[in-house]
Amino acid sequence: MTFTLSPGNVPLLVSIPHLGTGIPQPLRAGFVPRGLEVEDTDWHLDRLYAFARELGASVLQATVSRYVIDLNRPPDDAPMYPGASNTELCPTRFFTGEALYRDGQAPSPAERLQRRAAYWAPYHQALEGELARIKAQHGFVLLWDAHSIRSQIPWLFDGRLPDLNIGTAGGASAHPFITNAVARAAARHPQVTHVVNGRFQGGYITRHYGRPAEHVHAVQLEMCQCLYMREAPPWDYDDARAVAIQPVLRDMVQEALSACRSLYA
To answer: Going residue by residue through the chain (265 aa), what tens digit of pLDDT does each one get?
Structure first.
């Protein structure tokens, strides 16, 4: 199985597409040794978002590494951020820019299509199906796409990221009432910084599935990993930091869900 899905009972689906660390055995020989350490994983987000199940949310999370295929990229591999450094549907570079594969071992066009069918399509079928189920039950749905990243990666962006990067595809993927509620919740916690639709405005999942006119609202949160873990090997979870940031995340998610409910009350 390339993902796990835990259905909930409220109009909220939390998607964690970059949590996976698995690289199938037949593919492992093509990667440089460093690649097998899967350093660009969105580490520990299942643990950090454990409260989502307490809220009654559905939770969908990947088990296959983004190095195999990036579930948050479009199937045609179009760049998400034209003019900036972009990772691909089947990434060929680390976030630091170095080659992910041994010479001559990067996936061929045929291999990319095979991976898309084997790993990308099942996740998106599950995502689309769960959104449809929730919407049929409640009449609307909020999709929260959960991500994390090292706070400084010069190949991808200049300087240090804000702590919390809220993305709604420039306002297209969620009603402004929801976006504003999330931003207000973040602002209640001055110990962290936040931005709305900055460097990370939402990837394919947010942009494709967020359809406010159809009562489906999508918010991406890209958060700095230093808020809850060590941003260096062995990428371990930091309980003290995590305990401090979890109430902030919970506040943001709850405010988004409350705002969504208010729209359809």
So the answer is: 799 999 999 999 999 999 999 999 999 999 999 999 999 999 999 999 999 999 999 999 999 999 999 999 999 988 777 766 678 999 999 999 999 999 999 999 999 999 999 999 999 999 999 999 999 999 999 999 999 999 999 988 999 999 999 999 999 999 999 999 999 999 999 999 999 999 899 999 999 999 999 999 999 999 999 999 999 999 999 999 999 999 999 999 999 999 999 999 8
- Nearest Cα neighbor of 178 from 248, 265, 259, 252 is 259
Amino acid at residue number 242: A
Among residues 138, 128, 147, the alpha carbon closest in space to that of 75 is found at: 128
Cα separation of 78 and 86, whole Å?
10
Q: Domains in the chain, please, with CATH?
A: 3-263 (3.40.630.40)
Taking the CA of residue 125 as centre, how many other CA atoms within 13 Å lie in the half-sphere pointing to its CB? 9
Q: Which of 30, 152, 130, 13 lies closest to 90, judged by CA?
A: 30
Query: What does the angle CA 153 – CA 158 – CA 161 come to, to the nearest 5 degrees?
Result: 70
CA atoms within 13 A of residue 52's CA, in its CB half-sphere? 30
